[in-house]
Design brief:
Blueprint lengths: L4 H20 L14 H8 L3 H9 L2 H9 L6 E6 L1 H5 L11 H9 L2 E2 L5 H4 L6 E2 L10 E7 L2 E5 L4 E4 L4 E3 L2 E6 L6 H4 L12 H15 L3 H27 L1
Parallel strand pairs: 1-8
Antiparallel strand pairs: 1-2, 3-4, 4-5, 5-6, 7-8
């Protein structure tokens, strides 16, 4: 059966309209970029991390975190001690640390990988923290079940109950105790012995020197006595000769 010219015209017009409609259809929107993660804003929103933020600023650890978050494909996990956690430390616990040791303490609260709460129950203990280095592995141990997770340093154990943030690439978990590493606070940590006081050493050396050396006064008195005895003896001998 032959196709009429009118049918061909209608078909051609239909195809033309279909192609035009496809060309005008809007493209699918590209996935929105999440942008850089603002760790500072996460802590400020929590409202009880003033001391932690002050230490991060003082040691410039904030900069390290921001750089790592925006360059690492593994993400980060950070345990943030509350202000009460720092207030419960023994007096002078932080002031007794050097600048480098304060950095290590902060890095001990950081893992170089994103972990959800459920993933923390599947890790192989101990989990290396960012404080690990040439001195060895500074690790944390995780235990628990279901949604309850406990983290232990060997000196301190605390429960993780919730998250300030748990979206890749950053997980932040508030904790009610400062995680104290045995390398800084344990009984086997290396403590340099203070040098002996200079005054004690000086007195001791002076006493030893005085004891070793003879007294010049006694030697002079003895010499005078010998000389006097010689003169008296010589006088007696002369008197005997004259008589």
């Amino acid at each position: 059966m032959a196709t009429s010219p009118l049918s061909l015209l209608v078909l051609s017009l239909f195809l033309s309209l279909s192609l035009h409609a496809q060309a005008q259809a809007p493209a699918a929107p590209a996935p929105a970029s999440s942008g850089p993660v603002n760790f500072t804003a996460v802590l400020e929103k929590g409202g009880q991390f003033v001391t932690f933020m002050r230490l991060l600023n003082k040691t410039q650890t904030f900069n390290q975190i921001e750089n790592q978050l925006n360059s690492s494909s593994e993400g980060m996990t950070i345990f943030a001690p509350t202000d009460n956690a720092f207030n419960n430390l023994k007096a002078g616990a932080l002031n007794g640390l050097s600048q480098q040791q304060q950095v290590q303490l902060l890095q001990y609260h950081m893992l170089s990988k994103f972990y959800s709460l459920s993933n923390l129950l599947l890790v192989s203990n101990p989990v290396s923290t960012q404080a690990s280095g040439h001195e060895g592995v500074w690790g944390l141990n995780f235990t628990g079940q279901s949604s309850q997770v406990n983290v232990s340093t060997g000196l301190v154990e605390v429960q993780i109950n919730n998250a300030l943030r748990q979206d890749f690439p950053l997980a932040v978990y508030p904790i009610d105790k400062v995680l104290l590493p045995e390398e800084l606070f344990g009984v086997n940590r290396t403590i340099a012995s203070p040098p002996p006081p200079a005054t004690s050493s000086g007195k001791s050396n002076s006493s030893e020197t005085a004891a070793a050396e003879p007294s010049p006064g006694k030697n002079s008195a003895g010499g005078r006595n010998v000389a006097l005895g010689s003169i008296v003896g010589l006088g007696l001998v002369c008197m005997g000769i004259i008589s």
